[in-house]
Amino acid sequence: MAQADAEAPKPSGSDATGAAASHSEPGAHGGATGHGPTGSHGSFWALMLGSIGVVYGDIGTSPLYAFKESLHHVAMDGTAATRAEVIGIVSLIFWALMLVVTLKYVVLVLQMDNKGEGGTLSLMALAQRALGRRTPWLFVIGIVGASLFYGDAIITPAISVMSAVEGIREVEAIRPYVTQEIVLAIAIGILIGIFLVQSRGTGRIGRWFGPITAIWFLTMGGLGLWRLLTDDWTIIEALSPHHALTFIIDHKFLSFVVLGSVFLAVTGAEALYADMGHFGRKPIRAAWLALILPCLTLNYLGQGALVLSVPESADNPFFLLAPDGPARIALIALAAVATVIASQAVISGAFSLTQQAIQLGLLPRMEIRRTSETQFGQVYMPQVNWMLLVGVLFLTVTFQSSTALAAAYGISITGEMMMSTLMVFIIIWRLWKQPVWLASLIVAPFFVIEAVFLSSNMLKLFQGGFVPLLLALALVTVIWTWVRGTRLLQEQTRRDEPLDKLFEMLALHPPTRVRGTAIFLTADPNVTPAALMHNLKHNQVLHEQIIILTVNTIQQPRVNEADRVKVEDYLPDVKRVTLSFGFMETPNVVKALTSPRTRKQGLKFDIMKTSFFLSRRTVVPSEKSGMPLWQDHLFIYLARNATNATDFFHIPSGRAVELGNQVMV
């Protein structure tokens, strides 16, 4: 048996097709990471600098492995890549950056903000609003996209940190002493350290993420420019799409394989949209066009120039950009710091996205700790943190090298991008009210490109690519089970006594009244809360003031304080109160009920003389429920491990009373 708070407040719009959806989040990557000021605060330049550290941390570590892994496919037989192949691969990477990142995300998707916020769930909420209804297929698209993000969340730290640590092999003085075991031990140590410090937040060190990452990009761009000028400047021919197309035509199926590694250069692009709420559209665009794109382009050109000049450098061209000695050691150290920042952004994005999913009723309640009093997005979720750590360490120990990890990287991200493209089509068509042919014409090129990338990455399926897909499948199953089980419990709740009939009966047979205020939490204000029925049944009393409280999560990131509370005079001594929160807000019930705006609406009570009554139901499996028995047991397990409602809604434990009964699902 397990306990589930069937009377807990529900997200508005939850139904058989799922919940109203929205980060970061989400997260970076599906949600705001919270390492900088929000889009409405701070100067333009401060926001731009902050976005460099958070938004571009992931894509900024791609040069460590993207070009190297792409070259490996054309030199698998031990022969060096030809001049045309090197130029062709650099051209493919450059135009992937231009088409996927610049045109799709910077130009198009950043226009699609949901009340200033972005991310997969925000995009789904926007698409639902455009359609004017919730549809099962759109719900599935959004949930699959969000679930695929978690594959990125466990692979990015592993491959980024491993790539940086592998750079020590390129230092001549210590190369003889560097074994695979040493590289693996250092990488594991760094990864464990990243997750151990999550509970402390990154408020203090987060302010340095932007400047350090900016130095990282300038260093990459500077090294690339230096190699461009000293090795083989003719690599700039790669800026012409002619060479990318020629490579594809000449290499046929091999080019299809290479594209799977070329795609590594654009991993992290979805963070541009996911973190829009924290930095704003203009700072993110300015950072990409003024710094990130030029520096990435110069670095890939520099790596290509180096390989053209010194073919044997193809094994690890990034670190060989710097001369051996102190300069290369400094580059390795800077790369390690950059990968830590990139990992932090992805982890924070996972926290944000999970928080949004919980608020929308897609996942059971989990503990959410705020690690900053001033920065909204600074949250820490212990359960998510430790699950990510286990996943990251499993991948690191299993694959043991960045090359092997690259084989598992890409499938989840391309899938997530394709889901977002489908939702972009809906928004252009229905929300922007463009003809369906024009909407199709705009998104078709992106969908085709991403479909090609996905097909190419699917070749990695049995080399490790199945790992993120299995993780996404597991998350989809959990979300489906939780939404379906919650709906079944809500349907049982609707069979309870209507609130009108209860008070009609009480008017004829009034119970004993006691002093103070009783607040009953319920998902449906028209149905008698189970806690109220049990209080009457067992205690046979009612308080002198009764508040029927419903908490809704609506399809926008945040709610204006003026719209937070709605008070309805139901009876002289009974009020119905509705609290509304956005999907990126933490529902603090006491703070909302005691705010000056609430008192102006006539809701006055002494919190020290108030009791919060919550309904807890013990859930047992039933063969006659609407779910298979295995799904019943999964739902019960999730319910048993959900965070207590009093903690989640910030209700003082000393003022909370829980009453329950047994139900079957």
Topology overview:
Layout: E1 2-4, H1 44-54, H2 66-74, H3 83-108, H4 120-131, H5 136-165, H6 180-196, H7 203-206, H8 209-230, H9 241-251, H10 253-262, H11 271-274, H12 276-279, H13 281-309, H14 317-320, H15 326-359, E2 369-370, E3 379-380, H16 382-399, H17 402-406, H18 411-431, H19 436-458, H20 466-493, H21 499-508, E4 512-521, H22 530-538, E5 541-554, E6 565-571, E7 574-582, H23 589-593, H24 596-600, E8 610-620, H25 629-640, H26 645-648, E9 656-664
Parallel strand pairs: 4-5, 4-8, 5-7, 8-9
Antiparallel strand pairs: 1-8, 2-3, 6-7
Helix pairs in contact: 1-8, 1-13, 2-3, 2-10, 3-9, 3-13, 4-5, 4-18, 5-6, 5-15, 5-16, 5-18, 5-20, 6-16, 8-13, 8-15, 9-10, 10-19, 18-19, 20-25
Can you give keywords for this protein?
665 residues, alpha/beta, 2 domains, seven-stranded mixed beta sheet, two-stranded antiparallel sheet, elongated, disordered N terminus
